């Protein structure tokens, strides 16, 4: 089983990015999937959860700006990030919460 993140990049403050987490070896819709991020010199922090039934949960700092979604046909999870701020700069990871499987991460850099 693997998870591969993509979609990171450099964006100006106020801009948007959409991250993709592609799963293989298991079905994303069967498990709890989470997004996390790790900024330089900081601990990894939870960002969002996408439950099998479609419920979503977000950390306070991204509520109203980030939206998690899933494409079951593609077995992919997404994180739409709008109104990005400098503080959102981090490596973003997706995780199969049930198995504790992590992807390799994708870098998001927001210029102020």
Question: If you had to describe this structure to a student in words, what would you say it looks like?
Answer:
This protein is an all-beta fold. The protein contains no helices and eleven strands. It has strands spanning 2-6, 9-12, 17-24, 33-38, 45-50, 56-58, 66-71, 76-81, 90-96, 101-102, 106-111. The mean pLDDT is 97.
Q: In a nutshell, what does this entry contain?
A:
The chain has 112 residues and is mainly beta. Helix content is 0%, strand content 53%.
Task: For this entry, give a set of tags.
112 residues, mainly beta, 4-stranded antiparallel β-sheet, globular
Query: Which H/E pattern describes the elements?
Result: EEEEEEEEEEE
Give the % helix: under 10%
Give the CA-CA distance, first to last residue: 37 Å
Number of helices: 0
Relative strand content: over 45%
Looking at how many chains there are and whether they match, the oligomeric state comes to single chain
Unreliable runs: none
Mean pLDDT: 97
